[in-house]
Amino acid sequence: MVYTYFFKALGIALFIVEMWYFILKPISQELRLWQKQWDRIGPSFRQKPAFYISLVIILILVVPFDVTVNTQGMLKPEKSFTMITSVPVQLRALPPPLGSEVEPGTLIIGLESPELNKKIAQTQARIDSLNFQVAASGFDPQLRKQQAILREQLQLNQESLDGFIKEKVRLNPRAQYSGVIADANPDLFVGEWLPKGSQLVTLVDDRQWVVDCYVTETDLKRLDKGNWGKFIPEGRGLWGSSLSIISIDRDATRTLVDGALASTAGGDIVVRLQEKKSIPEQAIYRVRLRVDGWSPLTSEGYLRGNVVIYAWPKSILGDFIRSILVTLLREVGF
Q: How far apart are CA 293 and CA 241, in angstroms?
């Protein structure tokens, strides 16, 4: 009550005094009394079942039996590319069939945007006009006064043109690595008009797979690179796989990218929706593990499952003391 209704420093001081005077001091006095009289009470106490029950309870609380971190993770290819249209487009070249092996440099899909072509032509025309005016400014006194403005406009238009050209190149993506066509829209045909946001084709590198999972700050301190783990898929008839940690994020995840792990999709991570983004309710940290010696037998390999990571051991009493200290440190800060 003092801590809440008065200033915090007084509440903290009273807390320390009360904890010592009413709890810690009586316990220490009782233990010293037991120590002095242990020769008399020890033999009879050791013959009672309560002695052994107490030993078992103490061992359970103190000995660090827990050597694993259990969480939920998402199996995925380490490298993947999905073509999603950012503008309305027309299909010019079909993607390779589903399951096709693709070499680096292979055209994945061919798209064209007349609206984008129009913007490129208009911007190029403005650049040509501005280049002419800049070149003529040496002969025209009026244009010479506007030379700085003309050069600035020329630079802005050139940057816009570069952006449009990059977008046009992005509409005709080529494979950056060897992979397999893992997903492709089967109903596509040349000349078809596609709206913005259409998911057309996915290329994955099927040689290496990873599992992304998320742990709390307490469990994060128990993990190191190289720790072993196990991934157990939720799907029936699928074998588990061995894992090893390859990266650990030291900054908390602000937005949960793996939506299937969110509570809104039946996952274990409690989130709230904010502007169509999944925001974790508590601080969690991403841990990425490499899959050793196994590849999924599904089209894309995106599977949710349970992750067990072998970590530094912890005890029940240690967790309890740690939570108390965390609460004290948080409340002392003012």
A: 8
